[in-house]
Design a protein that fits this description.
The protein has helices at 18-26, 31-34, 125-154; strands at residues 5-14, 41-46, 58-63, 66-76, 80-87, 92-103, 109-119. The longest helix has 30 residues, at 125-154. The N and C termini lie far apart (52 Å). Helix 1 crosses helix 3 (125-154). It has a domain at 5-26 and 70-154: 2-Layer Sandwich (Alpha-D-Glucose-1,6-Bisphosphate, Chain A, domain 4), CATH 3.30.530.20. The chain has 155 residues and is an alpha+beta fold. It has a 7-stranded antiparallel beta sheet with strand order 1-7-6-5-4-3-2, covered by helices on one side.
């Protein structure tokens, strides 16, 4: 095991309020509604505190046969959602992700989505960083689109 650490950071801005963005990210059972085509299935393996998506919740997202399970480790309403990968085994060990929502002066929200992991198999870190960072870039774009559609409908 190499033990080299890798990380990535994706930044986006949305016209949607932080509450709308947070609600979408924290609701693991409904990722399949906005994160397609990568996430075709989404559900709760375990609910957390507060239910359903708070600390201790485990969401299962992806498409069969690859369904990833992520446990919520931080839940700060409308501000911060952090999670860790709990299954299946991956060449990216100890994966930790965090999404922070910061209201901005234009009335929207700045989004900072970060991920970090330890390379489990020597030489796989750069490829895993590119793949995972690319997936998060995709998810963050879909998140912004879904939140802006929702907030436009709320006006």
């Amino acid at each position: 095991m190499s033990g080299r650490k890798f990380s990535f950071e994706i930044n986006r801005t949305s016209s949607a309020p932080a509450a709308t963005l947070f609600r979408l990210v924290a609701d693991g059972a409904n990722w399949s509604k906005w994160a397609k085509p990568i996430v075709l299935q989404s559900s709760w393996t375990r609910q957390g505190d507060p239910a359903p998506g708070g600390v201790g919740a485990v969401r299962k997202v992806g498409m069969w046969p690859l369904l990833v399970q992520e446990e919520t480790v931080a839940y700060e309403q409308d501000r911060r959602h952090a999670y860790k990968l709990v299954g299946p085994p991956s060449p990216a060990k100890d994966y930790f992700g965090e999404v922070v929502f910061t209201p901005n002066q234009s009335g929207g929200t700045d989004i900072r989505w970060t991920g970090e992991f330890v390379e489990g198999v020597r030489g796989t870190g750069p490829v895993m960083r590119a793949a995972m960072g690319g997936a998060v870039r995709f998810f963050s774009g879909r998140l912004v689109q879904a939140a802006e559609r929702q907030s436009a409908g709320d006006r």
